[in-house]
């Protein structure tokens, strides 16, 4: 992950928070929407990790030690 991804997520979070307030859901709605987005992000991370394990890409080569 790079810094640009964090900036995009921050901007999208602020936009979604503003939208739910503008829709009249109240000032507590951004916190609830943020919690839902955090759970979705965790689910995506877990699915991605599981896919890496299944494909074998998560295995790091073991360095050989000099004898």
Fold and architecture overview:
The longest helix is centred in the middle third of the chain and has 27 residues, at 29-55. The mean pLDDT is 88. This protein has one domain (3-55). It has helices at residues 3-22, 29-55. It has 67 residues and is mainly α. 0% of the residues are buried.
Brief rundown of the structure:
This protein is mainly α and 67 residues long.
Structure annotation, total helices? 2
How many domains, as an integer? 1
Q: Strand content of the residues, in percent?
A: under 5%
**What proportion of the residues is helical, as a percent range?**
over 70%
User: Can you write the helix and strand succession as a string?
Assistant: HH
User: Termini, distance in Å?
Assistant: 37 Å
Draw up the topology in text.
Blueprint: H1 3-22, H2 29-55
Helix pairs in contact: 1-2
Please give a handful of descriptors for the protein shown.
67 residues, 70% helix, mainly alpha, single chain, elongated
């Amino acid at each position: 992950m790079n810094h640009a991804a964090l900036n995009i997520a921050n901007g999208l979070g602020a936009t979604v928070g503003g939208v739910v307030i503008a829709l009249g859901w109240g000032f507590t709605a951004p916190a609830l929407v943020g919690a839902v987005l955090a759970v979705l992000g965790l689910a995506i991370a877990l699915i991605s990790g599981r896919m890496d394990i299944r494909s074998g890409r998560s295995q790091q080569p073991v360095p050989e030690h000099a004898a």
